[in-house]
Design a protein that fits this description.
2 domains; 366 residues; single chain; D-amino Acid Aminotransferase, Chain A, domain 1
Amino acid sequence: MIAEHRTLAHVEAEIQALLTQIQQISQDLAVLLVICVRDVTVIKRDYSRYSMSAGFLHGPEIREFVSSLASRNFYVQHFADESTFMSWILGGEQNFLPYRHKIVYTSAANGIGPGRRTLIPAFCSLEGLPTANSDAYSCAINRHKFHCAMLLKELGFRVPRTWWYDAEEGWFQDDRPTIGDRVIAKSTFEGASLGVSAATVGEFGAHMEREIANASRDLRQPMTVQEFIRGNELEVPVLRLPDRYIAPSPVAIARRGGGRSPDDVLLYEDVYDDYYEFSSPGYSNEESRRISEIAERVAAALGFRGFSRVDFRIDEFGNPFVIDVSTTPHLTRTSSFNFIFDQMGFTYSDMLEAMIAVGAKQNDMI
């Protein structure tokens, strides 16, 4: 299931083959996008200090997303919230589309709390609609940071020391960091760095514990607290083909214009404002391949499908620690996926077409 050692040139050739295959059915394929958009999607539930819209696409981003796919001869229909899409399907409207194949892709989900990313994959499974996403279970486990970290640790992957704190219940099993430990606290159920602030990153002590408790109350959920790993932060895009996983290469991420500092971390405000940038990590081919192979194994262990992503911090000794995973990675121009596709000589439209091709492949359309 894991790809044998390959260079970017080998991966490029495989992606090019997928693009050729999907074009054979492109004019007979309807792509249904369920993606929330800032200032368009009505937020059903939100937080006080943080907003779920941090993970939504901007208007220009969704327009480019749609036009890029349409330029590849797909019929594309976008739904800005899950309720509209589900009502449309339950009303049988999809049956009036004159296309043999239909595939659903969802990201930037509405709502708050655990399991919300499972809604569309579970609904589509019930209705017999193919998706380009992971299944409901994988979408659920990837959005429970504490459970995911504990599962990966049990499976033999290197993860930071991890604790779980709830403002009402206290520390899980009364296990907490040691005074002076450097930690980072994150919302357990959300992405887009919700809950990560200057107050929740630093040396653990009484003041830090109060800040973690405040964040838990603000977000109405437990906080996942991890040992802070000094070093480069990497995102590794992963593609799931029917017989294997492929992670082309790690991508370094850092705050925009700040360079890569071992103490750097993206805060909620940085993610909300897209104040970050990607670069090549500068590792040898062997080092990059080693990290990519770990990402492939993580994706395989969690049963990810389609496009996914595994995030790492690399310590001073070169040890990769898995710090996060995603079944719905950003696929905008400001994404690690687009960065690595650009490095391989592909366009933004190629990347989105490849996403549809991978989904079509896993659903036996090509």
